[in-house]
Design a protein that fits this description.
Elements (H helix, E strand, L loop, with lengths): L2 H14 L6 E4 L5 E5 L2 E3 L7 E5 L1 H8 L5 H6 L3 E5 L1 H5 L1 H5 L2
Parallel strand pairs: 1-4
Antiparallel strand pairs: 1-2, 2-3, 4-5
């Protein structure tokens, strides 16, 4: 599964739940996913918050198999910028 495969799930969440601010999942060489202005895209841009994470760990995070706080403590993800925006991500991902 590629990062592009995750876009429809994230877009569905954005269409049913409000998400203020902008957030980028930076997966290095694998690419980025940007949540901004009610859309999920693979086009890089400046955002309020950036989460650096491997593509594999991003898949786990979005599937609910990686707890965000545990991920931060174990160094599996790093948050920079407005952490408040990252905190809103949980509401977006709820099923």
């Amino acid at each position: 599964m590629t990062l592009t495969d995750l876009l429809p799930k994230l877009q569905k969440g954005l269409s049913t739940r409000p998400f203020d601010g902008s957030l980028k999942f930076d997966c290095g060489a694998d690419g980025v996913i940007v949540l901004a202005d009610g859309t999920a895209s693979g086009q890089d841009r400046e955002t309020d918050c950036t989460i650096k994470i491997s593509a594999g760990n991003l898949h786990k995070l979005l599937a609910g198999k990686l707890n965000p706080m545990t991920g931060v403590m174990m160094g599996k993800l790093k948050v920079s910028g407005n952490v408040g925006v990252a905190m809103k991500l949980g509401d977006l991902l709820k099923s």
